[in-house]
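Recall the central idea of this unit: under ordinary conditions, the amino acid sequence of a chain determines the structure it adopts. In this exercise we apply that idea directly, starting from the sequence alone.
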Amino acid sequence: MALVRYLWFVLDEQTMERFRVMLADEAPMTEGLTMTCGEKLLEQGRMRGRAEGKLEGKLETAISSVLRVLEARGLPVSEAQRSRVEDCRNVDTLERWLRAAVTAESTEAALR
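Accordingly, the structure predicted from this sequence is:
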């Protein structure tokens, strides 16, 4: 199984398909193994993609929320501060800034 997994990573699709067919011809009981391994890899990729998409959505929402609260409160946001918020990739930090933005006296105080 480790060999099949390795081959899925290093071979192009056409070569892997030829290998799978050859393996199925020579050892029919392995066909399910190669398909199962490939399916597992695909599912792992889908799950990773979903997790990354969820994180990106949370980040975008948090970034937008911080900036909207600051703007709604009439607190000026400099380009450097805007860039700092937009470049932040830590949801916990963004949520902390959001909570602070609700009551902070200044944008600088909110982004501590």
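The helical segments are 2-10, 13-26, 31-72, 79-87, 91-103, 107-110.
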